[in-house]
Each structure stands twice: as structure tokens, then as C-alpha cells.
Amino acid sequence: MHKFRTRLLFGLLTLIIAVLIGLGILIGQLFQTYYIDTYKDRIKKEAELTETLVLKEGIDSTNLQPIIETISEQLESNVAIINSEGAIVTEALYGEKSPYYDRTLEQLLGDNRNKKKSFYEIRTEDDLFFYGMPIINDSDEEGFIVLSLPVSSLKLVNQQIWGLLIISLGLALIVILIIGVRITSQYTKPIESATQVAMELAKGNYKARTYENHLDETGMLSQSINILARNLQDMTKAQEMQQDRLQTLIENMGSGLILIDGRGYINLVNRAYKEIFQIDENSYLYKLYYEAFEHEEIIDIVEEIFMTEVGVRRQLMVPLKIERRHFEVYGVPIIGNSDEWKGVVLVFHDITELKKLEQMRKDFVANVSHELKTPITSIKGFSETLLDGAMNERETLTYFLSIILKESDRLQSLIQDLLDLSKIEQQGFELNIEKCDFKEILDEIIMLLEQKAKAKDINLNVDNPYHHVYLQGDPDRLKQIFINLIGNAINYTLEGGQVFVTVKNLDDQVVVTVKDTGIGMKEEEIPRIFERFYRVDKARSRDSGGTGLGLAIVKHLVEAHHADIFVTSHVGEGTTFTITFNKEGKHLLR
Ligand code: ADP
């Protein structure tokens, strides 16, 4: 950038120097000419005066010599009077005689005498200035006067003129130079700064700004550059914000998204897609879609969109490692304003959970119907048999009626459990939380189930050494939980077995363990026993009057109390359920 200023300054300087030199030469010449003219004029007048004196005395007069000498003395010049034959009549020399004087005089007279005119001549050999003038008396030429004097004074004046000129012009040059530097820097600085900023803008640094402290055109330039920079900065900011928003939206949307360009190359894969399909970005980005996608169905969708140019919505089941996941895939063609193909967007909604729920609902309906069908079929069968005549036999009648009663009880408890479950699962289900004494609750349950245990010759051991075990909870629901758990322990333990109920009253928690020495179950069954209608041993469950809904209800109620339930079991050894309650029971609303 300094180059511009230097070039401008250099150009200006060259121009000024040229002008000053030209001016110097012109002025010098003018001075010189003027001075020489004055000098010549003076000599001419002196020669005319001498002529007058010579004519007065007569060219051949012997009195002429002292007059000429006086004149020579006065004029500080050599004076020579030459007659019409060309011989020197009188001669007076001022100072030392130059070795060339005689020869020069002779030569000049030879050249000019016959021309009858005055002449000027500067002879450098003897550094003399000669002026010759014919002596005219009544228009007759009587001879010649030649005045000659040294040119040293001429040279001195010449030197002085040039010296003066050089000094004054040199000073002028320095002053012009200083002012020039100041003016150029005043004008070039804002331009330099503006150029610098423009270069920064070109590089993408939109924060660059220039000073705006000038009011002239350069100030306007600076202002315009700053406005441009500000606009660019605002524009890029807005664009970055837009880009960020889009990026955040694409990256954080719950569904997988893929963008394929018009030539079939994958341009964008969002985070959700990478997570769902567990893929590495490098194996997808800038690859052809049919090379990148592992699943034929997805390739088919893309091809269909490319061929038909219409959006496609389809549900797919995709095996991913050990899982099978369901997706609703929505693909749309991207067609530009001027009908050019820009590509395809694919959005993958993971609907596996929805599908699972749908399946669960179907299973539930099937299970409920099945569970209801069995006792109803049985009641219907026995009633028909009784009506067909069996009621006449008293023994059969009693037996059949007792079966009908048992099946009705099953139906009743099944419906009760279903109602309970649906109530608990309903949105807005609330527990009646209060400070309750778990000691009392457990005592009541034990009283209730003692008979049942005794009937099976099962020892019901309770380890609850506290006077009170207070916790925040819903007493009825807590009762329901432990009736189910202890009831199950009795149901799934063979005769003569043991059931242990242990309570630990800790600082913040109450830990209750229900342990039996029963039939137990395989480890892989454990996560499933909380599912509705899931039974490990169907026959035993039915015989004991189980509905298959007990543990599903327990799980919901435990969660509603913000408690944890943990199960360990071994086939033939027994099962342990451990429930840990938070005494404060915070956020117990469901
Ligand atoms: P059910 O009404 O059939 O007892 P639950 O939901 O209470 O239904 O229990 C689900 C299944 O879990 C039972 O059918 C049974 O196979 C198993 N189970 C529950 N408790 C125990 C236990 N203490 N010992 C062994 N198996 C159990």
C-alpha cells in the first residue's frame, strides 16, 4: 500500500524537479542574456565615447596616445585604435598583456574590418571580451576602435546568478517536498486504510473498520466502506444465525434425516439417523445412496421418488443388529424453481414403540377375552349340565354349584384386578398419601394371610422388630402391594415351605423383603413377570386363583410411591422381592 503513496510522491517529485529545472534554466538564461546585453550596451557606449575623443584629436595625432591611455585606465579595458590600412595607430593595455592578444586582434580585424560593422567576440584562449567598432567621420571609415576587457567579471556574475537560482529553487523544492509529503499522506492515508479494510473484507473479516475523520471524498469513501462492512457483518450474522437454527433443528430433531443430491450422492445425515442406524458418518457422506444404504427397501423408496418425482410415505420394518425396528419413512423430491432436480429428502420416524403399544393393546384384548372365556365357558357348561337333569342328583348339584361359585369368584377377582389396573394406569391417578405406620399395615396383612399359609402348612416368619415404622404412603395401596407379594410367596411355595417377611427401618428408607423357599423361576423370566397376564406356571397360577395381573398392579403402585422393586430367584430354591421406600415419599402424585 505504501507503494501507492511512494509512486504518487515520486511522480509529483519528478514533475516538480523537472519544472524547477526548466524554470531555473529559463530564468538563468534570461538573466544571463539581460546582463550580457547591458554589458554589451555599456561597452558600445564606451567605444562611442572613445570614438568621439579620437575624432576630435584626429586619428593620426600624436596627442592621442595619452588620451587613449587615460581612457584605458578609466574603463579598465585594453584600447586599440587601428587606421584604415589596418595598422595599429595607438594601443593602451590595462594590466598584463595576454599571450594571445595580438594574434586575436589581428584575426578579428582580418575577419571584420572590411565588413565596416561593429562586432562582439569572446575569446576564451585569452579570456577577453572584444568589441570592435568602425570610426566613421563624415561617412568615411577612418579606422577601427577595439576595446577588450577580461570576461572574469562576466563569469562571476554568471556563477552568482546560477548559484542564487540553485539555492532558491533547492529551498523551494524542499518546501514543496515537505508540503507534498503532508498533502499526499493526508489524502493517501484514508485511501490506504480503506484499501486495507477492503482487503480484510475480501478475506472474510467483516469486523474490520476504517477511521472516518475526514469530511472530503476520502471521508465518504471510508464511510461507505464502513457501511459496507457493517452490512456484510449483519448479513453474515443473520446468515450464521439462520444456518445455526437450521443446523440445530436438523441435528436435534427426533427423526432421522438424510439429504440426497440430484446425482444420488448423500449430502447430509443428521445425528438422529446416525444414532438410530448406528452408522459412521464417513460411510454415508458423499457416497451414492445405493452403495451406502444396507436396506433394499430404503433404496427402493429413493428410486421410486427419483422415477415418479412424487413424495412417498411408507412403513418399514428394519432389522438393526438384534432388534427389529419399525419406521415410517417419508421421502420427498426437492425440485428447484426452474424445475431442476435438487435431490431427495428422507425422514425416518421411529414408530417401534407405537407398534409395540399397538401390539400390547391387541395382546391385552386377546388375553382379557381368553381369561374371561374360560370361567364363563365353565359356568355355562356346568349350568347346562345341571339343567339337563344333573340338578336332580343332590351330590352332583352341590359339586357343580361349588364349581360355578369358584369360577364366579375367579371372574370377580379378574374383573376387580382389571378395574384396579385400569384405574391405576389412568392419567391423573392419585394416591391418598398420608403418614402411615407400616408396622400396623403389615400386622393386618399377616392376620389376613395367616390362615392361607397355615392351610398349606407354610411357616410365615415376620421380622419387624420396631414399634412403629412411619413412612409417607397410601395405606390401602401399600396393603394391596404386600397382599399380592406375600400371597404369591404362599401360592408359589410348596407345602411345608417357609415365607420370610423382613422390615428394615433405616434413616431415610424402609426396606421390605418378601422371601420364600418356593418353586422359584428362571432368571430370564424375571423381567417378564410384571407384564399383564404373564405367568411362568399357568396351571399353578389358575389353581391358586391368580389372575396374572397381581405383579402388574404391584409394579404400578411401587412406581407411584417412587419406590424400587428388585427380584432375585432360583428355580427350586425360592424367590426374593425387595422393595425400598423413600420415607419422605416426595412427588408421590402420578
Ligand atoms: P398370578 O395372579 O398368576 O400370581 P402375578 O402377576 O401375581 O400373577 O404373578 C405373575 C407370575 O409370576 C405368576 O404367575 C408366577 O408364575 C410368577 N411368580 C410371582 N410370584 C412368584 C413367587 N413368589 N415365586 C415364584 N413365581 C412367582
Automatic annotation (TrEMBL):
Stretches assigned to the PAS domain: 242-315
InterPro entries, per the entry: BphY/WalK/GraS-like (IPR050351), HAMP_dom (IPR003660), HATPase_C_sf (IPR036890), HATPase_dom (IPR003594), His_kinase_dom (IPR005467), HisK_dim/P_dom (IPR003661), HisK_dim/P_sf (IPR036097), PAS (IPR000014)
UniProt source species: Bacillus carboniphilus
SMART domains, per database record: HAMP, HATPase_c, HisKA, PAS
Assigned EC number: 2.7.13.3
Transmembrane segments: 161-181
The protein's name: histidine kinase
GO MF terms held by the record: ATP binding
Domain of life (superkingdom): Bacteria
Record Pfam families: HAMP (PF00672), HATPase_c (PF02518), HisKA (PF00512), PAS (PF00989), sCache_like (PF16736)
Domain Histidine kinase: 367-585
Domain HAMP: 185-237
Main EC class the enzyme belongs to: transferase
Signal sequence range: none
Keywords: ATP-binding, Cell membrane, Kinase, Membrane, Nucleotide-binding, Phosphoprotein, Transferase, Transmembrane, Transmembrane helix, Two-component regulatory system
Localization per record: Cell membrane
Topological category with respect to the lipid bilayer: Multi-pass membrane protein
Catalysed transformations (reactions): ATP + protein L-histidine = ADP + protein N-phospho-L-histidine
